[in-house]
Protein backbone atom coordinates (compact mmCIF):
# COMPACT_ATOMS: atom_id res chain seq x y z
CA UNK A 1 0.00 0.00 0.00
CA UNK A 2 1.30 3.45 -0.92
CA UNK A 3 2.49 5.50 2.08
CA UNK A 4 0.26 8.48 2.82
CA UNK A 5 1.62 12.04 2.82
CA UNK A 6 1.41 14.12 6.00
CA UNK A 7 0.10 17.66 5.51
CA UNK A 8 1.18 19.87 8.43
CA UNK A 9 -1.15 22.84 8.09
CA UNK A 10 -1.73 26.35 9.39
CA UNK A 11 -5.06 27.53 8.00
CA UNK A 12 -4.81 30.97 9.63
CA UNK A 13 -1.30 31.90 8.42
CA UNK A 14 -1.06 35.11 10.47
CA UNK A 15 1.10 37.65 8.63
CA UNK A 16 2.59 40.12 11.12
CA UNK A 17 4.55 42.78 9.29
CA UNK A 18 5.71 40.29 6.67
CA UNK A 19 6.76 37.69 9.26
CA UNK A 20 5.30 34.53 10.77
CA UNK A 21 5.60 34.92 14.53
CA UNK A 22 5.45 31.99 16.93
CA UNK A 23 5.80 28.24 16.68
CA UNK A 24 4.29 27.56 13.24
CA UNK A 25 7.42 27.41 11.09
CA UNK A 26 9.54 25.58 13.72
CA UNK A 27 6.81 22.95 14.19
CA UNK A 28 6.44 22.45 10.44
CA UNK A 29 10.21 22.06 10.03
CA UNK A 30 10.24 19.74 13.02
CA UNK A 31 7.68 17.44 11.36
CA UNK A 32 9.76 17.42 8.17
CA UNK A 33 12.77 16.24 10.18
CA UNK A 34 10.86 13.69 12.28
CA UNK A 35 9.22 11.95 9.32
CA UNK A 36 12.20 12.20 6.94
CA UNK A 37 12.77 8.78 5.40
CA UNK A 38 9.44 7.49 6.71
CA UNK A 39 6.91 9.34 4.57
CA UNK A 40 6.47 12.57 2.64
CA UNK A 41 5.60 15.76 4.52
CA UNK A 42 3.97 18.76 2.87
CA UNK A 43 3.72 22.12 4.64
CA UNK A 44 0.43 23.95 4.09
CA UNK A 45 0.02 27.67 4.67
CA UNK A 46 -0.76 31.01 3.09
CA UNK A 47 1.53 33.07 0.82
CA UNK A 48 3.71 34.11 3.79
CA UNK A 49 4.98 30.52 3.96
CA UNK A 50 6.86 31.00 0.67
CA UNK A 51 9.50 32.89 2.68
CA UNK A 52 10.28 29.75 4.66
CA UNK A 53 9.67 26.77 2.35
CA UNK A 54 10.40 26.12 -1.31
CA UNK A 55 7.77 25.14 -3.87
CA UNK A 56 8.57 21.43 -3.51
CA UNK A 57 7.89 21.49 0.24
CA UNK A 58 4.87 23.81 0.25
CA UNK A 59 1.20 23.41 -0.59
CA UNK A 60 0.16 27.05 -0.74
CA UNK A 61 -3.24 28.07 0.61
CA UNK A 62 -4.93 31.17 -0.86
CA UNK A 63 -4.76 33.64 2.02
CA UNK A 64 -2.71 35.08 4.83
CA UNK A 65 -4.58 36.64 7.76
CA UNK A 66 -3.71 40.10 9.07
CA UNK A 67 -6.28 40.55 11.87
CA UNK A 68 -9.16 38.81 13.65
CA UNK A 69 -11.92 40.44 11.60
CA UNK A 70 -14.90 38.62 10.13
CA UNK A 71 -13.41 38.92 6.63
CA UNK A 72 -10.22 37.26 7.84
CA UNK A 73 -12.22 34.39 9.36
CA UNK A 74 -13.91 33.86 5.99
CA UNK A 75 -10.45 33.64 4.43
CA UNK A 76 -9.52 31.03 7.03
CA UNK A 77 -12.58 28.99 5.99
CA UNK A 78 -11.50 29.21 2.34
CA UNK A 79 -8.01 28.04 3.36
CA UNK A 80 -9.62 25.12 5.20
CA UNK A 81 -11.68 24.11 2.16
CA UNK A 82 -8.56 24.16 -0.03
CA UNK A 83 -6.63 22.11 2.52
CA UNK A 84 -9.35 19.48 2.85
CA UNK A 85 -9.51 19.14 -0.94
CA UNK A 86 -5.74 19.07 -1.60
CA UNK A 87 -5.04 16.62 1.24
CA UNK A 88 -7.89 14.21 0.53
CA UNK A 89 -7.02 10.54 1.22
CA UNK A 90 -3.87 11.67 3.06
CA UNK A 91 -3.04 12.65 6.69
CA UNK A 92 -3.69 16.18 7.97
CA UNK A 93 -2.03 17.52 11.12
CA UNK A 94 -3.63 20.87 11.90
CA UNK A 95 -1.57 23.33 13.91
CA UNK A 96 -3.25 25.28 16.71
CA UNK A 97 -3.63 28.73 15.19
CA UNK A 98 -7.38 29.42 15.31
CA UNK A 99 -8.98 26.45 17.08
CA UNK A 100 -12.62 27.61 17.28
CA UNK A 101 -12.67 28.61 13.61
CA UNK A 102 -11.00 25.29 12.82
CA UNK A 103 -13.70 23.36 14.73
CA UNK A 104 -16.43 25.19 12.79
CA UNK A 105 -14.65 24.48 9.50
CA UNK A 106 -14.27 20.80 10.37
CA UNK A 107 -17.90 20.47 11.48
CA UNK A 108 -19.29 22.16 8.36
CA UNK A 109 -16.78 21.54 5.58
CA UNK A 110 -14.83 18.34 6.26
CA UNK A 111 -16.22 14.96 5.13
CA UNK A 112 -13.89 12.21 6.40
CA UNK A 113 -11.79 12.24 3.24
CA UNK A 114 -8.48 12.08 5.18
CA UNK A 115 -7.15 11.17 8.59
CA UNK A 116 -7.31 14.34 10.68
CA UNK A 117 -5.22 15.14 13.76
CA UNK A 118 -5.16 18.40 15.71
CA UNK A 119 -2.29 19.84 17.74
CA UNK A 120 -3.64 21.43 20.94
CA UNK A 121 -1.32 23.05 23.49
CA UNK A 122 -3.96 24.04 26.05
CA UNK A 123 -7.68 23.87 26.86
CA UNK A 124 -8.60 27.44 25.92
CA UNK A 125 -10.71 26.25 22.97
CA UNK A 126 -13.02 24.22 25.27
CA UNK A 127 -13.16 26.47 28.34
CA UNK A 128 -16.76 27.67 27.93
CA UNK A 129 -20.14 26.09 27.20
CA UNK A 130 -20.29 27.61 23.70
CA UNK A 131 -16.77 26.48 22.82
CA UNK A 132 -17.47 22.95 24.05
CA UNK A 133 -20.62 22.82 21.93
CA UNK A 134 -18.70 23.92 18.81
CA UNK A 135 -16.03 21.31 19.53
CA UNK A 136 -18.61 18.53 19.98
CA UNK A 137 -19.99 19.33 16.51
CA UNK A 138 -16.55 18.60 15.05
CA UNK A 139 -15.36 15.86 17.41
CA UNK A 140 -16.55 12.79 15.51
CA UNK A 141 -14.59 13.89 12.43
CA UNK A 142 -11.25 14.16 14.26
CA UNK A 143 -9.06 11.05 14.49
CA UNK A 144 -6.95 12.23 17.41
CA UNK A 145 -5.09 14.97 19.23
CA UNK A 146 -1.41 15.72 19.72
CA UNK A 147 -1.01 17.30 23.16
CA UNK A 148 1.66 18.21 25.76
CA UNK A 149 0.09 16.43 28.74
CA UNK A 150 -2.70 14.15 29.91
CA UNK A 151 -4.86 16.99 31.26
CA UNK A 152 -5.08 18.64 27.85
CA UNK A 153 -5.59 15.30 26.09
CA UNK A 154 -8.50 14.22 28.27
CA UNK A 155 -10.19 17.59 27.72
CA UNK A 156 -10.64 16.66 24.06
CA UNK A 157 -10.68 12.91 23.52
CA UNK A 158 -9.60 9.48 24.68
CA UNK A 159 -7.42 9.22 21.59
CA UNK A 160 -4.41 11.46 22.09
CA UNK A 161 -0.64 11.32 21.93
CA UNK A 162 1.47 13.13 24.52
CA UNK A 163 4.57 14.72 23.02
CA UNK A 164 6.63 17.81 23.76
CA UNK A 165 5.79 20.94 21.74
CA UNK A 166 8.97 20.39 19.73
CA UNK A 167 10.75 17.07 19.38
CA UNK A 168 14.52 16.98 19.10
CA UNK A 169 15.34 15.42 15.75
CA UNK A 170 19.06 15.96 15.20
CA UNK A 171 21.76 13.39 15.88
CA UNK A 172 23.56 15.45 18.52
CA UNK A 173 23.45 18.79 20.33
CA UNK A 174 26.27 21.31 20.22
CA UNK A 175 26.65 22.74 23.73
CA UNK A 176 28.69 25.90 24.30
CA UNK A 177 31.22 25.48 27.16
CA UNK A 178 30.63 27.48 30.34
CA UNK A 179 33.69 29.70 29.80
CA UNK A 180 32.53 30.76 26.32
CA UNK A 181 29.10 31.95 27.43
CA UNK A 182 28.73 35.72 27.26
CA UNK A 183 25.76 36.50 29.48
CA UNK A 184 24.89 35.29 32.98
CA UNK A 185 21.19 35.29 32.15
CA UNK A 186 19.31 35.53 28.87
CA UNK A 187 15.68 36.57 28.48
CA UNK A 188 15.03 35.52 24.89
CA UNK A 189 11.82 35.49 22.86
CA UNK A 190 8.69 37.61 22.53
CA UNK A 191 8.11 39.96 25.45
CA UNK A 192 4.74 39.81 27.22
CA UNK A 193 3.56 40.89 30.67
CA UNK A 194 2.63 37.34 31.68
CA UNK A 195 6.09 36.08 30.75
CA UNK A 196 7.41 38.22 33.59
CA UNK A 197 10.23 39.51 31.39
CA UNK A 198 10.44 43.03 32.81
CA UNK A 199 10.46 42.17 36.54
CA UNK A 200 13.12 39.52 35.89
CA UNK A 201 15.20 41.94 33.83
CA UNK A 202 15.12 44.64 36.51
CA UNK A 203 15.83 42.26 39.37
CA UNK A 204 18.79 40.52 37.69
CA UNK A 205 20.30 43.78 36.46
CA UNK A 206 19.96 45.34 39.93
CA UNK A 207 22.01 42.46 41.37
CA UNK A 208 24.88 43.14 38.98
CA UNK A 209 24.44 40.16 36.65
CA UNK A 210 25.24 40.52 32.97
CA UNK A 211 21.81 40.20 31.34
CA UNK A 212 20.64 39.89 27.75
CA UNK A 213 17.09 40.63 26.65
CA UNK A 214 16.25 39.88 23.01
CA UNK A 215 12.86 39.71 21.33
CA UNK A 216 9.90 41.62 20.03
CA UNK A 217 7.59 43.54 22.36
CA UNK A 218 4.21 41.80 22.27
CA UNK A 219 2.21 44.41 24.17
CA UNK A 220 2.43 48.13 23.40
CA UNK A 221 2.20 49.19 27.04
CA UNK A 222 5.53 47.47 27.79
CA UNK A 223 7.54 49.59 25.37
CA UNK A 224 8.28 52.58 27.63
CA UNK A 225 8.88 50.52 30.81
CA UNK A 226 11.38 48.21 29.12
CA UNK A 227 13.49 51.10 27.80
CA UNK A 228 13.35 52.79 31.21
CA UNK A 229 14.88 49.66 32.76
CA UNK A 230 17.49 49.37 29.99
CA UNK A 231 18.59 52.99 30.44
CA UNK A 232 18.91 52.51 34.20
CA UNK A 233 21.52 49.72 34.08
CA UNK A 234 24.78 49.45 32.13
CA UNK A 235 24.93 45.65 32.50
CA UNK A 236 21.98 44.99 30.18
CA UNK A 237 22.55 44.08 26.54
CA UNK A 238 19.43 44.30 24.39
CA UNK A 239 18.09 43.50 20.94
CA UNK A 240 14.47 44.65 20.80
CA UNK A 241 12.58 43.51 17.72
CA UNK A 242 12.23 40.42 15.57
CA UNK A 243 14.96 37.85 16.26
CA UNK A 244 15.75 35.46 13.42
CA UNK A 245 16.41 31.78 14.01
CA UNK A 246 20.21 31.96 13.88
CA UNK A 247 20.40 34.83 16.38
CA UNK A 248 17.76 33.19 18.59
CA UNK A 249 19.91 30.06 18.91
CA UNK A 250 23.08 32.10 19.44
CA UNK A 251 21.55 34.16 22.24
CA UNK A 252 20.28 31.06 24.03
CA UNK A 253 23.46 29.06 23.56
CA UNK A 254 25.71 31.87 24.81
CA UNK A 255 23.69 32.57 27.97
CA UNK A 256 24.65 30.58 31.06
CA UNK A 257 20.96 30.35 31.96
CA UNK A 258 17.75 31.42 30.25
CA UNK A 259 15.06 32.93 32.44
CA UNK A 260 11.36 32.05 32.10
CA UNK A 261 9.77 34.15 34.84
CA UNK A 262 6.23 33.02 33.98
CA UNK A 263 3.13 34.36 35.70
CA UNK A 264 -0.60 34.79 34.94
CA UNK A 265 -1.79 32.95 31.83
CA UNK A 266 1.63 31.39 31.21
CA UNK A 267 1.46 29.37 34.44
CA UNK A 268 -0.55 26.55 32.86
CA UNK A 269 0.32 26.94 29.21
CA UNK A 270 2.44 24.50 27.31
CA UNK A 271 5.77 26.23 26.71
CA UNK A 272 7.66 25.76 23.47
CA UNK A 273 10.29 28.24 24.62
CA UNK A 274 11.48 25.95 27.41
CA UNK A 275 12.22 23.33 24.75
CA UNK A 276 14.01 25.89 22.57
CA UNK A 277 16.25 26.62 25.54
CA UNK A 278 16.91 22.98 26.43
CA UNK A 279 17.46 21.84 22.84
CA UNK A 280 20.06 24.58 22.45
CA UNK A 281 21.95 23.25 25.45
CA UNK A 282 21.16 25.85 28.10
CA UNK A 283 19.70 25.28 31.59
CA UNK A 284 16.45 27.01 32.57
CA UNK A 285 15.82 29.29 35.52
CA UNK A 286 12.14 30.00 36.01
CA UNK A 287 8.97 30.16 38.03
CA UNK A 288 7.70 26.97 39.62
CA UNK A 289 4.58 26.25 37.54
CA UNK A 290 3.04 23.47 35.45
CA UNK A 291 4.37 24.99 32.21
CA UNK A 292 7.91 24.27 33.45
CA UNK A 293 7.34 20.89 35.12
CA UNK A 294 9.81 19.20 32.78
CA UNK A 295 12.60 21.33 34.23
CA UNK A 296 12.00 19.97 37.73
CA UNK A 297 11.23 16.42 36.62
CA UNK A 298 14.42 16.14 34.57
CA UNK A 299 16.78 18.42 36.56
CA UNK A 300 17.23 20.80 33.65
CA UNK A 301 17.71 23.91 35.78
CA UNK A 302 16.32 25.75 38.78
CA UNK A 303 12.68 26.60 39.53
CA UNK A 304 11.80 29.13 42.21
CA UNK A 305 8.82 30.53 44.09
CA UNK A 306 10.62 33.88 44.27
CA UNK A 307 13.34 34.98 41.86
CA UNK A 308 15.45 36.10 44.83
CA UNK A 309 16.16 32.41 45.49
CA UNK A 310 18.79 32.44 42.73
CA UNK A 311 21.13 34.39 45.04
CA UNK A 312 21.60 31.33 47.25
CA UNK A 313 21.58 28.67 44.54
CA UNK A 314 25.25 28.55 43.57
CA UNK A 315 24.29 28.67 39.89
CA UNK A 316 27.73 29.68 38.68
CA UNK A 317 29.59 26.75 40.18
CA UNK A 318 30.93 24.97 37.08
CA UNK A 319 30.38 21.50 38.55
CA UNK A 320 26.72 22.28 39.20
CA UNK A 321 26.40 23.77 35.72
CA UNK A 322 27.88 20.61 34.19
CA UNK A 323 25.32 18.48 36.06
CA UNK A 324 22.57 20.51 34.42
CA UNK A 325 24.20 20.01 31.02
CA UNK A 326 24.43 16.24 31.58
CA UNK A 327 20.71 16.20 32.38
CA UNK A 328 20.03 18.12 29.18
CA UNK A 329 22.04 15.59 27.15
CA UNK A 330 20.10 12.73 28.74
CA UNK A 331 16.76 14.43 28.09
CA UNK A 332 17.66 14.98 24.44
CA UNK A 333 18.77 11.34 24.06
CA UNK A 334 15.33 10.22 25.30
CA UNK A 335 13.59 12.25 22.62
CA UNK A 336 13.91 9.30 20.24
CA UNK A 337 11.10 7.59 22.18
CA UNK A 338 8.89 10.66 21.72
CA UNK A 339 9.60 10.65 17.98
CA UNK A 340 8.64 6.97 17.72
CA UNK A 341 5.44 7.58 19.71
CA UNK A 342 4.32 10.41 17.39
CA UNK A 343 5.18 8.47 14.21
CA UNK A 344 3.20 5.45 15.32
CA UNK A 345 0.21 7.54 16.42
CA UNK A 346 -0.10 9.55 13.20
CA UNK A 347 0.67 6.76 10.73
CA UNK A 348 -1.51 4.00 12.25
UniProtKB/TrEMBL annotation:
<protein>
    <recommendedName>
        <fullName>Glycosyltransferase</fullName>
    </recommendedName>
</protein>
Amino acid sequence: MKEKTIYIADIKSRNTGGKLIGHFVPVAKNYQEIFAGKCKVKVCGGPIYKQYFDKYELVELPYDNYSDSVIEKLRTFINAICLFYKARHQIIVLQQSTPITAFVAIACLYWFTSKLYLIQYNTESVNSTLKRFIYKCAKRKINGFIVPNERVGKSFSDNYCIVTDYIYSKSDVKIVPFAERIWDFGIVGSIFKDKGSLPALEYLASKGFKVLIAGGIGEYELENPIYEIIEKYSNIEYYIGFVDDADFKYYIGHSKYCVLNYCGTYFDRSSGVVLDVIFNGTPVVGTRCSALNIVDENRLGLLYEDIAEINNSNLFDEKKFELYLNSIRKYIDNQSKVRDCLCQFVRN
